[in-house]
Specification:
Order of helices and strands: EEHHH
Distance between the termini: 99 Å
Strand content: 5-15%
Helix content: 55-70%
Largest sheet: 2 strands, antiparallel
């Protein structure tokens, strides 16, 4: 089978030659394909079960990140309050 390729010429100069992108090895079956190995299609990879498991995993990760962010926020607020109390105590300990 002879493949037909588009060749665009302008004034005798080849501007685009589709055969430049052609790989003759694409037409041959490889040993791995003969043994049953092949790339899976998107429909085979992204099944409903896979998507549900992925959604559960992502929801758990989001919940974990929210919990960590909440702990960090509380920690920062407590640290700022303690810092202000410490500075106030140092500056005003003579009054007490």
């Amino acid at each position: 089978m002879k493949n037909q390729f588009d060749v665009i010429e302008k004034d005798g100069v080849v501007i685009y030659d589709e055969s430049d992108d052609y790989d003759p090895g694409e037409d041959e079956t490889t040993q791995s394909e003969a043994d049953g190995f092949r790339l899976l299609t998107n429909e085979e990879i992204f099944t409903d079960e896979y998507m549900q498991n992925y959604a559960k995993k992502m929801d758990a990760q989001i919940d974990r990140e929210k919990r960590i962010q909440r702990l960090i926020s509380v920690g920062v607020i407590v640290a700022v309050i303690l810092f202000v109390v410490l500075i106030s105590y140092i500056n005003f300990k003579n009054i007490l």
